[in-house]
Amino acid sequence: MQTNQRADNSGYFHRHMIVAGLALTGLLVGACSNAGRVRRPPPVETNDLPAFYGAWETYTDQVNASERQPDCRPRLIAARATGERRGAVVMFHGFGGCPQQLFGMAARVAAQGYDVLLPLQPGHGLLPDADGNDDLSHLPQPGEAVNRYGELAVRMNDIMARSPGEKIVVGFSLGGAVSLYASLNAPDLYERQLLLSPMLAIRGGSFIEGLVEVLGHAPGVRNLVVKPGAIRERCHEWQAAGRAGFCDYRLKDVIALLDLEDRNESLYAGRSLKMPIQVVVAGDEKYVSNARIVDLVAQQSRHGPIALCALPADVPHEMLSPYENTGRRMY
Prior knowledge:
Blueprint: H1 12-17, E1 22-24, E2 27-29, H2 50-63, E3 75-77, E4 87-92, H3 103-110, E5 114-118, H4 145-160, E6 166-172, H5 174-185, E7 192-196, H6 205-216, H7 229-240, H8 251-270, E8 277-281, H9 290-300, E9 306-310
Parallel strand pairs: 4-5, 4-6, 6-7, 7-8, 8-9
Antiparallel strand pairs: 1-2, 3-5
């Protein structure tokens, strides 16, 4: 999976992924290419695939039992019929988004001979309510986030373990935290990992997170919608242009994310990851802490190959989907 190849329909990501010699919080980062080149595996026979596909189908049937927005249904993007199937990749989308965020990347990876699994984050993708508002009623809540986000990660591990060939795990934003949880719970399962603006901590650091923790447990405040008005308005414009997912969220939904962060930190303290990891951060980051990501890269460099790619200052957190960058040519 080459993160520095030209996108099929735009040169934007190609121009901005080739960035060398940048310094981010004192850590030197190199070119935006795969960390620790892994020899391309030979083609694998596909006669062991029924269990893999069957487990995925069981999962999708369960998710689709509830009505969802069309681009919020789990998808399997099958490896292109080139005569070679090289393995499988699971990609976890971000908070408030849907598998739609990863359609472009998934198609390119499938063209390289990989089956790509695009699961749906818990509580995401429900249809708007009768008043047209985002339905947030099934999002993981404080105290259950690890169970629900973590259960998704472990279930995908079980499905991926059935696939012949190379196994790769990818996560964007919240999906980066779920991806990390997946690899920490199965450190020998994946050959490679790609983390895109992973949610390791909220931008603003411990003060902001502490404030969220206090307010998010206060009666009458925990249900407060906290997304700034201008960002909400822009997100609703994206929805009108075809973006899938929700725009609003509450303080208690954010606390659930912090619970997952804490669990990952606890797991990481007792386990090390050996597979090559590529990390990509946005220059115009408004949600996750790039400083915390740099800390992870520094820690992980003692255990296995890892590379950090810092995209230029005009690249936003929503780096992947054209639906979240209307009027701008994005990958």
